[in-house]
Write a structure and sequence with these properties.
mainly alpha; 3-stranded antiparallel β-sheet; 53% helix
Length: 215
């Protein structure tokens, strides 16, 4: 029986990959981990469940095939799936949201210690640097002519550019935050807030007085 729930962004993420080529279940999850997980992280179990749901609703089809003596499921997009994907792409995008457990810890750092907060800030910078290292490896792979789907490189680089810049921002912010917190006695009341640059736009320049005929 078809599922009556509307398609989600995760539904369209899978349909987008299926539009590129058919995927066996394991390879589909691996490709999502390689690319989409940088900006659309989802549990692997949810991806498997969503792929099955797309088949039930007619947006994708699945077939069983033998591979090395084992059976595997291969998914492909259907005409109905392509139509739904195109309609989704035609609509304006939704909100861009930041989801970060470490930042949640920073927000409630007044309930812990200064050392805990500094550890969290250092870890945030280190994780961002590690993610940048992965993206560098991917870029080198393409530069050497070995990356998958080279015909899609321009659009992939466009999307990953925002990921890279967000990582750059996280690294720079973590360094500034570590410097700021290092001057605190403890997280919480009594410390002077350091506002991010641009929060308060500079006041507009006062208009110059009009010249008179005498001038």
């Amino acid at each position: 029986m078809p599922d009556t729930r509307p398609l989600t962004a995760t539904s369209f993420a899978i349909l987008g990959l299926l539009a590129v080529r058919p995927w066996p279940t394991y390879e589909l999850a691996k490709q999502i981990s390689r690319s989409l997980s940088h900006f659309w992280p989802r549990a692997e179990s949810n991806l498997y469940a969503e792929a099955k749901r797309l088949v039930t609703d007619g947006y994708a089809a699945a077939r069983q095939e033998q591979c090395g003596g084992r059976r595997r499921t291969v998914y492909r997009i259907t005409p109905q799936g392509r139509k739904a994907l195109r309609a989704w792409l035609e609509a304006p995008g939704g909100d861009t949201r930041l989801e970060s457990e470490p930042l949640l810890k920073v927000f409630f750092a007044d309930q812990g210690s200064k050392a805990d907060l500094l550890d969290t800030l250092r870890a945030m910078g280190a994780v961002a640097e590690a993610q940048q290292a992965l993206l560098r490896d991917m870029a080198e792979e393409y530069r050497a002519g070995h990356g998958p789907f080279p015909e899609r490189l321009a659009i992939s680089v466009l999307a990953m550019g925002l990921v890279w810049e967000q990582l750059e921002a996280t690294i720079a912010w973590s360094r500034r935050a570590i410097e700021t917190v290092g001057k605190w006695q403890k997280p919480g009341p009594g410390e002077e807030p350091v506002w991010a640059e641009g929060v308060f736009p500079a006041a507009a320049a006062s208009p110059k007085p009009a010249k008179t005929d005498a001038e």
